[in-house]
């Protein structure tokens, strides 16, 4: 009886050993070849949303397939979500932590959400803008980047925060004179209309508009060229139009010709 129990016990142990070995040995150990690799066609059988996101807004991620980033699958792979740094490295921006705080969906990497008050992460790419803000202090310098750019790549309309100088002016008109990152440095081209200048300089605009002299045919930007408050000298265009004696007696042209915007009223 005891012998039968021993035999039966050994048989059970042997069976357990065989089963354990059998489960531990892979098919490759029996010469059955490599396990088949998953293809993208296999992935989309279960994961339909992610491929659709990549097709719609995948940017550079369109150039790789699923298994390029997801090299394994659970449960055989303990974590099949890769770190961004396995591909993105070598630039200051890639050294930032918490990529998914802004790039909330890695399958649409350029659909970036900027949450909260943010400036420092932006500067890892946009250094020229902060240089302008620092070199030309204004109220804009005191703001966070995300105050204006709450969505990456968004360029807000000026009139979203600012009232126009005149009712006819649009945000596009604002940009003719003001640059967002140094707004107080007013500079313009010859596409600025006289009535735009007249929004602030009403007296000068009205005098020039009613003038019968040649100055009345000019754009404001013709004389006040390039930069706001540029004040040309009469001699820049007219040279020395009178004899030296007369010029010495009346060194200021305005003593006879009044102001440049109203040459009709001779003194």
Question: Could you give a short description of this structure?
Answer:
With 267 residues, the protein is mainly α. The chain has helices at 2-24, 40-43, 49-57, 66-69, 120-123, 127-135, 145-148, 171-177, 194-197, 202-210, 220-223, 234-238, 244-249, 254-257.
Description:
- There is one protein chain.
- This protein has 267 residues and is mainly α.
- It contains 14 helices and no strands.
- It has helices at residues 2-24, 40-43, 49-57, 66-69, 120-123, 127-135, 145-148, 171-177, 194-197, 202-210, 220-223, 234-238, 244-249, 254-257.
- The protein is rod-shaped.
- 7% of the residues are buried.
- Mean pLDDT is 84; it is low at 16-32.
Average pLDDT figure: 84
The low-confidence parts are: 16-32
- How many strands, which pairing sense, and closed or not: the largest β-sheet? none
Shape: rod-shaped
Structural class category: mainly alpha
User: What fraction, in percent, of the residue positions are helical?
Assistant: 25-40%
Task: Find the count of extended strands (DSSP E, 2+ residues).
Answer: 0
* SSE topology string: HHHHHHHHHHHHHH
Radius of gyration: 38 Å
- Counted by DSSP, the helix tally is 14
> Could you tell me the strand content as a percent range?
under 5%
Cα distance, first to last residue?
142 Å
């Amino acid at each position: 009886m005891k012998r039968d129990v021993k035999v039966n016990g050994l048989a059970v142990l042997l069976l357990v050993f065989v089963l354990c070995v059998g489960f531990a040995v892979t098919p490759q150990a029996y010469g059955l070849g490599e396990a088949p690799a998953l293809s993208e066609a296999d992935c989309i059988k279960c994961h339909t949303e992610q491929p659709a996101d990549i097709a719609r807004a995948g940017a550079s991620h369109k150039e790789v397939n699923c298994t390029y980033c997801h090299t394994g699958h659970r449960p055989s792979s303990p974590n099949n979500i890769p770190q961004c740094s396995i591909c993105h490295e070598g630039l200051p921006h890639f050294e930032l932590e918490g990529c998914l705080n802004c790039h909330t969906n890695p399958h649409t990497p350029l659909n970036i959400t900027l949450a909260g008050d943010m400036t420092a992460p932006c500067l890892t790419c946009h250094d020229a803008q902060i240089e302008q803000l620092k070199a030309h202090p204004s109220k804009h310098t005191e703001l966070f980047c995300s105050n204006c750019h709450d969505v990456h790549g968004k360029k807000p309309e000026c009139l979203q925060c600012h009232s126009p100088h005149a009712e006819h002016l649009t945000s596009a008109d604002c940009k003719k004179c003001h640059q967002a990152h140094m707004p107080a440095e007013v500079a313009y081209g010859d596409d600025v209309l006289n009535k735009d200048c007249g929004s602030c300089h009403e007296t000068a605009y009205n005098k020039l508009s009613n003038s019968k002299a040649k100055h009345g045919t000019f754009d404001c930007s013709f004389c006040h060229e390039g930069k706001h408050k540029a004040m040309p000298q009469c001699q820049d265009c007219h040279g020395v139009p009178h004899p030296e004696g007369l010029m010495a007696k009346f060194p200021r042209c305005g003593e006879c010709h009044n102001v440049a915007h109203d040459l009709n009223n001779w003194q």
